[in-house]
Amino acid sequence: MKKTLFSFTLSLALSCATALPAAARTDAPFPAPATVSAEMARSVSAPAPDLWLTKERSPEAVSALAKNYAEGAGPAALALAEEYGVKVEEGELGGVRTYTLTPKKLEDDKADKVVFYIHGGGYILGHGVAGIGEGVLMAGLEGYKVVCVDYRMAPEHPYPAAIDDAFRAYKALLETTPAEKVIVFGTSTGGAMTLILGIQAARAGVPQPAALIAGTPWADLTKTGDSYVTMDGVDNILATYDGLIRTAAELYTGGADMKDPRLSPVYAEEAALAKFPPTLLVSGTRDLFLSNTVRMHEKLLLADRHAELIVYEALSHAQYYLNPKAPETKTHYRLLGKFLDRVLDD
After folding, report:
1. Residues 308/339, Cβ–Cβ less than 8 Å
2. Mean pLDDT of 135-139
3. Other C-beta atoms lying within 10 Å of the C-beta of residue 164
4. Could you tell me which of 191, 205, 179, 136 has the C-alpha nearest to residue 344?
5. Nearest alpha carbon to residue 149 among 215, 224, 74, 98
6. Alpha-carbon distance 123 to 118, whole Å?
7. Rounded to an integer, what is the distance from CA 183 to the centroid of its chain?
8. What predicted TM-score, i.e. pTM, was given to this entire model?
9. Cα distance between residue 44 and residue 279, in whole Å
10. Strand, helix or coil at 104?
């Protein structure tokens, strides 16, 4: 199981990772500070993974990478679910495939609530059960029922397939679960899609969920924002924009304006943001997407919304959940639970 967990942790990192050009990489470009645990220090000081170093730009090459990723990450995610006692059931909502994750024990105060989970992966990675890992930890550590949406991805299915699938599945969920009992949650691309779902709901007059949790959202697909420069080579998960992540953005958008709010929610109009429910945003001090996250936080505050921001010490992109053995991961999920306790009680 230790080997499986390691593989799962690495696969999750690869699912949203970018890395430095090979000539610029070192084994440990920045040491871990004394403010993180020994377990997390190993993650913080590790070299960036190789997957997003590839210079391949063709749709065929990206599809092959995605297939290989799913073949490795899928079984590892199921093994993690077994370890945490989380039941995984395949289903569908609005014609979109889903995976429902049920914790070993569903407490009375959570029995009527559903976390609608949108996985990350740059709009190209995370097919099938390969995309459920973060949701497994939400179910296993915080005891929520989680519905994971298996949306279509590029290059086979470019924009707006992903967000259309997620929104269609969300609306179908509302047919059986009141919106005030639904939490929408995701990290990286999933964090952006969480925010985009809020924009879609606002524009369409569809009820907003009770809360949004957007972890280090890819809220700006263009290379705009301070941390795209200052954290280049510092973030050891998404070390640079200028690799496969740029290719993923281009393949998904297919020439569409990347500053369209349904691609980059940081550019959303205030009228839509003013309808958002309480929103939690999460990042880290070494996160390449730190600017995406804090810019989104500011926009929500200017729209007079309840918006909270957590910036974790020393952590790179999404590193708060990529190592399930680290105490920081358990702390992260406790903080998510406390946020939901506050806003759902209100």
Report:
1. yes
2. 98
3. 17
4. 179
5. 98
6. 11
7. 14
8. 0.93
9. 27
10. coil
As to burial, measured by CB atoms within 10 angstroms (0-12 exposed, 13-18 middle, 19+ buried), residue 34 is: exposed
Residue 331 neighbours by CB distance under 10 Å: 13
| Residue whose entry in the numeric block shows the structure tokens 């996250």 | 293
Amino acid symbol at 140: G
Query: One-letter amino acid identity for 118?
Result: I
CB proximity list for 313: less than 8 A, separation 6 or greater: 33, 35, 36, 284, 285
Task: For residue 109, give every residue at least 6 positions away whose Cβ sits within 8 Å of its Cβ, in sequence order, or none.
Answer: none
Strand-pair category, 87-93 with 96-102: antiparallel
The encoded tokens of residue 22 equal 């090979």
Q: List pLDDT tens digits, range 225-283.
A: 999 999 998 999 988 999 889 999 999 999 999 999 999 999 999 999 999 999 999 99
Nearest-CA neighbor of 54 among 246, 223, 287?
Answer: 246
The amino acid at 272: A
191 token code pair: 């964090």
Sign, Cα dihedral of 174, 145, 142, 116: negative
Q: For 283-321, what is each residue's pLDDT tens digit?
A: 999 999 999 999 999 999 999 999 999 999 999 999 999
Whole-number Cα distances in Å, 108 to 111, 112, 144, 145: 5, 8, 11, 12
Q: Which two tokens stand for residue 299?
A: 């926009």
Q: Which amino acid is at 15?
A: S
Q: Which two tokens stand for residue 95?
A: 């014609």
Beginning with the edge strand found earlier in the chain, give each strand of the sheet holding 145-149 in spatial order: 87-93, 96-102, 145-149, 114-118, 182-187, 211-215, 279-284, 307-312
